[in-house]
Amino acid sequence: xxxxxxxxxxxxxxxxxxxxxxxxxxxxxxxxxxxxxxxxxxxxxxxxxxxxxxxxxxxxxxxxxxxxxxxxxxxxxxxxxxxxxxxxxxxxxxxxxxxxxxxxxxxxxxxxxxxxxxxxxxxxxxxxxxxxxxxxxxxxxxxxxxxxxxxxxxxxxxxxxxxxxxxxxxxxxxxxxxxxxxxxxxxxxxxxxxxxxxxxxxxxxxxxxxxxxxxxxxxxxxxxxxxxxxxxxxxxxxxxxxxxxxxxxxxxxxxxxxxxxxxxxxxxxxxxxxxxxxxxxxxxxxxxxxxxxxxxxxxxxxxxxxxxxxxxxxxxxxxxxxxxxxxxxxxxxxxxxxxxxxxxxxxxxxxxxxxxxxxxxxxxxxxxxxxxxxxxxxxxxxxxxxxxxxxxxxxxxxxxxxxxxxxxxxxxxxxxxxxxxxxxxxxxxxxxxxxxxxxxxxxxxxxxxxxxxxxxxxxxxxxxxxxxxxxxxxxx
Amino acid sequence: xxxxxxxxxxxxxxxxxxxxxxxxxxxxxxxxxxxxxxxxxxxxxxxxxxxxxxxxxxxxxxxxxxxxxxxxxxxxxxxxxxxxxxxxxxxxxxxxx
Amino acid sequence: xxxxxxxxxxxxxxxxxxxxxxxxxxxxxxxxxxxxxxxxxxxxxxxxxxxxxxxxxxxxxxxxxxxxxxxxxxxxxxxxxxxxxxxxxxxxxxxxxxxxxxxxxxxxxxxxxxxxxxxxxxxxxxxxxxxxxxxxxxxxxxxxxxxxxxxxxxxxxxxxxxxxxxxxxxxxxxxxxxxxxxxxxxxxxxxxxxxxxxxxxxxxxxxxxxxxxxxxxxxxxxxxxxxxxxxxxxxxxxxxxxxxxxxxxxxxxxxxxxxxxxxxxxxxxxxxxxxxxxxxxxxxxxxxxxxxxxxxxxxxxxxxxxxxxxxxxxxxxxxxxxxxxxxxxxxxxxxxxxxxxxxxxxxxxxxxxxxxxxxxxxxxxxxxxxxxxxxxxxxxxxxxxxxxxxxxxxxxxxxxxxxxxxxxxxxxxxxxxxxxxxxxxxxxxxxxxxxxxxxxxxxxxxxxxxxxxxxxxxxxxxxxxxxxxxxxxxxxxxxxxxxxxxxxxxxxxxxxxxxxxxxx
Lengths: 476, 97, 504
Hints:
The complex is a heterotrimer.
Chain A: E1 5-16, E2 53-54, H1 55-67, E3 71-72, E4 75-76, E5 79-82, E6 92-95, E7 102-110, E8 115-127, E9 131-135, E10 140-144, E11 151-157, H2 164-181, E12 193-203, E13 213-216, H3 221-240, E14 249-253, E15 258-261, E16 274-275, E17 282-283, H4 286-294, H5 300-310, H6 315-322, H7 325-338, H8 341-358, H9 370-381, H10 387-400, H11 404-410, H12 419-432, H13 434-441, H14 446-458, H15 465-475
Parallel strand pairs in A: 13-14
Antiparallel strand pairs in A: 1-11, 1-12, 3-7, 4-17, 5-6, 5-16, 7-8, 8-11, 9-10, 12-13, 14-15
Helix pairs in contact in A: 2-3, 5-6, 6-8, 7-8, 7-9, 9-10, 12-14, 12-15, 13-14, 14-15
Chain B: H1 7-17, H2 23-40, E1 64-65, H3 75-79, E2 85-86, E3 89-93
Antiparallel strand pairs in B: 2-3
Chain C: H1 8-16, H2 22-40, E1 43-46, H3 48-63, E2 75-79, H4 106-113, E3 117-122, H5 156-163, E4 169-174, H6 180-186, E5 189-192, E6 212-217, H7 220-230, E7 260-264, H8 274-289, E8 293-297, H9 302-320, H10 338-350, H11 353-366, H12 371-395, E9 398-402, H13 418-423, H14 429-433, E10 438-445, E11 451-458, H15 463-476
Parallel strand pairs in C: 2-3, 2-4, 7-8, 7-9
Antiparallel strand pairs in C: 1-3, 4-6, 5-6, 5-10, 9-11, 10-11
């Protein structure tokens, strides 16, 4: 590669809103459930059915727009986007093209290298499509409209990002903001947050944009990073060979780490947008905007400062914990209950993150209650269980949200503080290991470790290791 | 006749409209469309400069529903008219080639 | 007494007074349908069993005092583009030839709540696209006045059913004249209400911004009573207006003294049949004689209504009819390859020529590069037309016009030339573009014995003025043009009022 290239990336992020009902009908948005159990004439596109807008969708979209510094379009309306596909029961999607609900915003992102603003071009409301499942047995597809009509906002950025790192930072920032607002749970794996990547490359220093492609089917941050790298290299190779980049939509295959063009002659990509005649315009008053603004929660940056001040957490801890609204809420509640914020933070930063990673889950999936975490901290701090038992109990808390007090009681995991019982065991260990005792006495500090280990084993882990250490030395 | 509709245009519109047209149908579609467009072009006699396009006749706005689940499971009724179904789903030719 | 000679309101009264049972009423009409519909073809579906069962239920509710309204027990025919739960709803298309809706259209539900009994679903132009009822997959409906002629369209089945005494009352829909024009051709009364007055929920959409459901009956009082029942705020239709002034039967007063009536000169120029013109002018003189102030005025934008309409209606139709794809309901072709092949074959086989013509036009005018030139231009024209009407209604209470340029054409005459068919809606279309209410009432016949209809148009939400003017005309002419006698195989309308009933 002789030349230097710059990658230019813009994102279209789809976020499912956390409403109870769909955008245009009173069907539940609940995830999962048997096929087509959350459907009605409206969301299956029955002839004669008509949409009626869910007010909460407008409020959530406004909240998202305001939190990302957008201007709210005070007279906005819906348009129809026409295209045929079986997951789209009407064969048009009700969306917004001409007057989207919010425009001209930005979010600030921070990467290792720098802080920067990523501008938001516009944000609009639309309905989600149904789900298609491929049936290998009969070589056909099956359509489930449970997701059809679930409200989405699409957030379209300007082409302001230059690397996968910036893209991830932007997505994490958006996710944090939207989760804090309670507007969406933003789970990539369940598809409640999805990103399409518009990418082009150009020679470094150039101010003209290259031809861009749009990549779809990106289901994780890792896939997004890989797809950006893959597409960047593909376009550079084309340019190096003197071939043109074709403006097209491509589907990323994360297993093959390659993208494929999605076009066919049946996809004319001519959506024939026109104003949706079945819905009325939305007029958003200054008062309504003020009302939504007033409901804004404490955001991450505010929380970080408060955690440092109020809970005396290190900045690093505060940043990690507040990355997820769920974790921040859990932290605050557990800290309140046990009065040990730093200890709570340690559990979240250490074991919780480790187990989330191991189980390939996100902080929003944290399954346990603040009460049980607080109890665990209390048990440890009171010396009722030792730290290795605590870890074992925590795994149970994480997996099943067990009550630690009850669990410790039932399984007899309390630290034995009975000196007599411990002394008995220690004397047996000393008697049974003359060599180790001799070694220790001869100055080999290491030998003590093996004696401690044997004592702990005999105590079934329930002794306080510091106490064992002390008593062993005494007895020898 | 001032409007001329090419074969390519008719093919393109048929793709958008998802209609399989025979050659004869294409020819008559072309003729029909040319005539209609000529007629529609009389609108160009009107000066509409500065006129706001009117999609709704009345100034009704902000018609909303509250976010309350009201619909029960009606999948049997919804699927009852499906030409083909399987596993409580609408069955279609495979979508990913 | 022949039940069929009663108007809907008269029949309702006799039912409430226990002079006629609901079952007798329903049977009388089912018998008439059986006798004549093989020739008229007003109905796609006759729900004999359902109607008789429902008649018993309604009778019970009347007897228990639960149903006391004017339409309790009255049979009604419903245009086949209004969904009826568990009853075939076809839009007169092969595409929906097996569609059984899981729900009932709000307009129909309103009538049913008032105790009306649906006896069947009426024929129409396929998906309401047409002005003659000849584009139906179920064959054309014939005009009861002369079966060599069309009944008009698209609500031709509903209008013919009322004219042929197959139903005292029917529901139609009007997107560009589809209630008023066939009402004129069939010599019945039809109202197209102000856009948003009757819920469109369950009306299978053609042009969503233009479609409106309305009543068709033998006289103005029936239409007023039906409209009063139909008009209700419906939360399921966002474009449905909440109206408080729906006491339409209260407007049935023969008093039009000082009412300002304007006649647009442009409606009486080239293209208007001389005999039609003569009847309409005669009717205008009748109204003037009742004290109305009648004068002519200019309505300059008339020539632009049809082209603007065809852009808007076709564009909306191309999108509204996209849902018919063989996936969820209706027809699915055989022998296709892959998904898009299924779509294209299904739609090619399921839709008729006129529907395809409009879907093609609509897809084209919305397509990339043409949207501004065609669609936005049409929406701007619509704004101008609306503004022009706003001005007119500053000066006039009512606009008086023909409902159609001719009386009913012969079968087949329009099919060969779609453009000619489109032009038959010239007097009705701008009313839809501006969302106005309009009524068509019979004012006489031409020399061939075919009915002539007069159209009255009022400003938005001024249906009461229409009803008052139309009712005044009926009274002033001693109900001479109201079909009141059922004799012979279909009906005849003997001018000079009601006579004793004689049926063969």
